[in-house]
């Protein structure tokens, strides 16, 4: 069993050779990048999964790795992954928009469980799950979810998501859920 973890955005994500930071937000002279925050969560999830003896494939490990968004599902497929988890932060016109949500293509049950994990671990508002058939990363042939952890421009969401305690609670929660799903698949 191998799980693909996809830290949203990064080098060559949208255009070859050009860095795509995803959503950004400026606060007190510091610019927060979705790509960097998603990567920190992805690395924490990777560690939590490996601690549970679950193999992990990362679509990117750092900010230099070239991983175009249209190729990420295919990369995961080629690496022999059984499930695909993409990690993002949300963005909206209004800085007041807040909360956590999970996007999915086919696996509504997995999305629902993942959303429960995120709401519990982050304490952020439950925005529910949303089916999306149009997203390139969700074209993975197998269970695929895209986590929108919270809104980068919302002060409460951003502060929560920058907390190391919340980051490890999210990583542990995701890893525990994946381990449970793996056990169910192996018994079936
Ligand atoms: Zn994103």
Map the helices and strands.
Layout: E1 2-7, E2 10-15, E3 18-20, E4 24-27, E5 30-33, H1 34-51, E6 55-58, H2 69-78, E7 83-90, E8 100-104, H3 108-122, E9 126-131, E10 144-151, H4 155-162, H5 164-187
Parallel strand pairs: 1-6, 1-7, 7-10, 8-9
Antiparallel strand pairs: 2-3, 4-5, 8-10
Helix pairs in contact: 1-5, 3-5
The structure holds zinc ion.
Summarize the structure in words.
- The structure is a single chain.
- The protein has helices spanning 34-51, 69-78, 108-122, 155-162, 164-187, and strands at 2-7, 10-15, 18-20, 24-27, 30-33, 55-58, 83-90, 100-104, 126-131, 144-151.
- It is α/β, with parallel strands linked by helices and 188 residues long.
- It has a single domain (2-187), classed as Zn-dependent exopeptidases (Aminopeptidase).
- Helix 1 crosses helix 5 (164-187) and helix 3 runs antiparallel to helix 5.
- It is globular.
- It starts with a strand and ends with a helix.
- The model has no long low-confidence stretch (mean pLDDT 95).
- It binds zinc ion.
- The site of zinc ion (ZN) has 5 residues, from loops.
- Zinc ion (ZN) is lined by residues 8-9, 22, 34, 88.
């Amino acid at each position: 069993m191998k799980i693909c973890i996809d830290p949203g955005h990064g080098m060559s994500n949208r255009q070859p050779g050009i860095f795509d930071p995803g959503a950004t937000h400026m606060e007190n002279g510091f610019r927060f990048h979705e790509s960097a925050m998603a990567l920190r969560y992805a690395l924490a999830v990777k560690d939590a999964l490996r601690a549970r003896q679950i193999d992990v494939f990362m679509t990117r490990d750092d900010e230099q790795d070239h991983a175009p968004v249209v190729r990420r599902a295919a990369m995961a497929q080629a690496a022999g992954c059984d499930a695909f988890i993409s990690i993002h932060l949300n963005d909206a016109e209004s800085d007041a928009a807040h909360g956590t949500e999970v996007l999915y293509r086919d696996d509504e049950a997995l999305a629902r469980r993942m959303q429960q994990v995120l709401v519990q671990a982050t304490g952020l508002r439950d925005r529910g799950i949303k089916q999306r058939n149009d997203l390139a990363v969700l074209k993975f042939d197998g269970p695929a979810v895209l986590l929108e952890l919270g809104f980068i421009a919302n002060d409460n969401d951003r502060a929560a998501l920058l907390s190391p305690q919340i980051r490890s609670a999210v990583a542990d929660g995701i890893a525990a859920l994946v381990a449970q799903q793996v056990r169910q698949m192996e018994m079936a």
